[in-house]
Design a protein that fits this description.
The complex is a heterodimer of chains A (about 240) and B (about 220). Chain A contains 6 helices and 10 strands. Chain A is of the alpha/beta class. Chain A has 2 domains: about 160 residues, P-loop containing nucleotide triphosphate hydrolases (Rossmann fold); about 60 residues. In chain A, β7, α5 and β8 form a beta-alpha-beta unit. The radius of gyration of chain A is 18 Å and the shape is globular. The C terminus of chain A is likely disordered. Chain B has about 220 residues and is mostly helical. Chain B has one domain. Helix content of chain B is about 85%, strand content about 0%. Chain B is built from 8 helices and no strands. In chain B, α3 packs antiparallel against α7 and α6 packs parallel to α8. The chains are: A alpha/beta (about 240), B mainly alpha (about 220). Chains A and B meet through β6 and α2 of A and α1 and α4 of B.
Chain lengths: ~240, ~220
Amino acid sequence: MQSLVSFKNVIVVSGNFPVLTGLDFEAGPGEIVLVTGRNGAGKTSFLRAVAGLLRITRGSARVLGVDIVANPGDARHRVGLLGHESFLYEDLTARENVNFVLKATRSDPSGADSAMASVGLAGRLADLRVVKMSAGQRKKVALAALLARNPELWLLDEPHASLDSWTREVLDSTVNAKVAAGATVLLVSHEAQHGSLVPTRVVEVGGGKIVGDSLLSEAIVAEETVKPKQESGHVA
Amino acid sequence: MWRDARLIAAKDLKIELRTKVTANQILPFAFVVLIVFAFALDTSPGTLQKVAPGLFWLAVLFSSILSVERTVAIELDDNAGDGLLVYGVDHGGIFLGKVVAVFVQLFLLEVLLLLGVVVLYGSKVGGWPLMLASTFFATLGLSAAGVTYSQLASASRAKQTLVPLLFVPVASPVLLAGTKAWQDALSGTSSIGDPWLRLLIVFAVVYLALGAIFFGSILEG
């Protein structure tokens, strides 16, 4: 299988702190990989490294066929990142923000209106300045920009946070459709099991590296095996 | 690069038109500088007319600190600057776009400040070719150096205090050359061939080149 994301023994040092400590990871086209792990395990750093926003200190890393150690910027415009920050300009309207993103990424501007409408940002909301929006509405604007861009690799860091159930469903169904068309998704979420975004694999990050990698079916079996033991007190 | 520069400049100017930070805060601050320094020196017209070029450029220098801090702060809210990197916007385009946006705002501010100098100090304006050329290149130099150093300071927790510390010493040749060029223009002793104008041109070209080369490294941290 052709790898769209290939990390081999990747070390990333941010400040003086190693946030990734020899991470190995592969993902191919059409995969939805759920990235799990405790707070501070390195999940967000992993996604930011894939997006080319963290400089890789050591190891080899290829994203969409680009060596991002040598050329960290060359794959970025093909990658979509929806994270804790929405990268929006507060004094621009939702429509202006989406149009700006499309121009900046040299994407087709005709998809802006339909993308905004699909997340419920039509009419008055589309022309509201972001500074006056709630956290959920801001997330919708960032999501609309991502949908309109249609990147090849989707990096979703807690994408369901702040979203209402209707928009969560829109996000899940849209991402499922993109994956069916060949896009790849790396998903960090504590709420993925509640939605219809079904991962094909589950990887666990701990201490800045991958400590578990299984197909979803294996992960479910493992979880169900552990639960009865925990309930009967065999596992502390 | 040019396309991205236009995009960034248009976005920054649109934000400025909407927030009016330059009009409502930086411009009044520049006038306060003109007035306060006049009080501190001597309010007699002869003295004020003599020091008017220096006070004008001092007010512009202080205003430019606020202006370049503002242009970088736009990208810090909601980490929008990281967004520009993810979108693959050309680093040189970001730099030039920011420089153009700051230049336009400062140039308009200088026009109004010049009117203030005429009204408050009773200065007579003349030597237009040298005055316009020196103002153009001084503003360009301040914008280019200011955007570079403000971006450099933005990674620091103490960015608000670090920008003046880094930028004012670097911009002092502009303060000196701008003042001298204006004095020469007003006295009619020199025109476009003025040596101070040449210094301003060199400063602007050097900082535009340095910014275009190094801004990407600064952005990427």
